[in-house]
Amino acid sequence: MKKRIISLAIACLLLFSCAAVFASPSGNGLPFELTAPAYVTAVWAEGNDSPTTTELTYCLSNEMTTFFKNMENANYDGTIDAFMQNIGCDDIWMNVQIDWALDDVSDPVSGWHYNQYWDGTPEFGLGRDSEGNPRYSEWDIVDGSLNNATETVQDIWITRGVPNDDRWYGVPETHTPGVRDQLRPDQYTYSEEDDGTLYIDYSKHTMYFRARFAVTVRRDGEPDKYYFSDWSSVTSVGKDAEKFTPLTKADLEAPVITGLHMTDKEFNDNPIVAFTLAVPDKLAENASKVEANGGSITIEVWARVKGDAEFTELQGDWIIKAGEMESALFNLANEARPNVPKDAEVELRCRYRYDHPGYIDECIYSDWSKTISFGTDDINYHTDPGADATQAPDDPAAPGKKVCPICHFCPQPLGLCIFIWLIIIIVIVVVILILVKKKKNGK
């Protein structure tokens, strides 16, 4: 009986350790929490591109960008099969769906246009019916692509010009709506000359937008499975839209950086370092609004060998994203010092740069982050800086992926290698056996 109890205890502990590896943090089968697009911002292009074109920006959560960065690194370092096995699928990707309404979101014609077909079918994907017919218009975004899911701020052009073909008139035979079917006649004017031009007077009308994420999970031998976030908050352009005010230096807090370390990547035969950037909610919100209004918030990375008087700007990641950023160190070598010994201490700091069309020939900088330091590998001087410093070598180590330093494949449940957990379990079992034996001998 005691042996059965001990065996059951071992089995339970092993199951617990495996569950720690494959558990979904979202609780719905995804390896990240599927939150709605954050800080959705829309800005009318004021006639550029087409009379109705609008730029929409939105933000991914830190957890999402970190996951897709780890996935990207797994592709780089050739461990993608183990990575996908750990999360329990063969492929996973994320799209954005964008809904729109003019003047009244509840109007049966020009209100929200989401319908059941946006949720997809296993045979034909998002937006199509069981016969494969598209049940969305040119302005209904049912499977919008992300620019790069490792980046916090995303942008997309929407409600662009509609030529006088099926995109405007629709296809009644397949129940495919045209944009004309989703507007009331008093809301627009349309010229059929020169392929057709649609006009909406945004001094009299308000266009509303909302967005949600659609995640597709693929497993061999099974239909694709779709997961959807909640809808975002509503943003708008036109008569009743909120007006944007450019930021000031007071709106930019200094970057928070941690975890500076050397990677196994190189650029121009010199090492690349990585550090972790925190992206607080306020920064993500500001970055989304700024980009939608034609500006940008980027990050500058500067470093020096300890003892040097001046910092030097490094090449590498400059777009804001939560998780690991990479920078090449070749700029620290120069003609006067063609080699930096690997035991030299290097100091690194960052600041945000804010550019806005309203600030002619100038930009605004945040305060500097704290200065963090590390010991470098050899850094050699080259006169030709060559290609982009973020270019990955043939087989980089991809430090952004949380690879276990012991087994190199497990996701370190609760911060420890799975084999360490197994050792702990074995030790617990041995202790239980000893206690049972002592109790038996005591009798």
Helix content: 10-25%
User: Quick one: how many beta strands?
Assistant: 21
**Shape estimate:** globular
Distance between the termini: 17 Å
Radius of gyration: 27 Å
Count of DSSP H/I helices: 6
Please report which band the strand proportion falls in: under 5%, 5-15%, 15-25%, 25-35%, 35-45% or over 45%: 25-35%
The secondary structure category is: alpha+beta
Order of helices and strands: HEEHHEEEHEEEEEEEHEEEEEEEEEH
Low-confidence stretches: 1-26, 383-403, 405-409
What is the overall pLDDT average?
83
Question: Short description, anyone?
Answer:
The chain is an alpha+beta fold and 443 residues long.
Detailed description of the structure:
With 443 residues, the chain is α+β, with helices and mostly antiparallel strands. Helices cover 19% and strands 28% of the residues. The protein has helices at 2-22, 62-77, 80-87, 166-169, 281-292, 418-442; strands at 38-44, 54-59, 91-102, 141-144, 153-158, 189-191, 197-199, 206-218, 225-228, 235-238, 257-267, 270-277, 296-305, 312-313, 315-316, 323-328, 339-340, 345-355, 364-365, 372-375, 379-380. Strands 3, 4, 8, 9 and 10 form a five-stranded antiparallel β-sheet that branches. Strands 13, 14, 18, 19 and 20 form a five-stranded antiparallel β-sheet that branches. Strands 11-12-16-15 form a four-stranded antiparallel β-sheet. Helix 1 (2-22) packs antiparallel against helix 6 and helix 2 (62-77) packs across helix 3 (80-87).
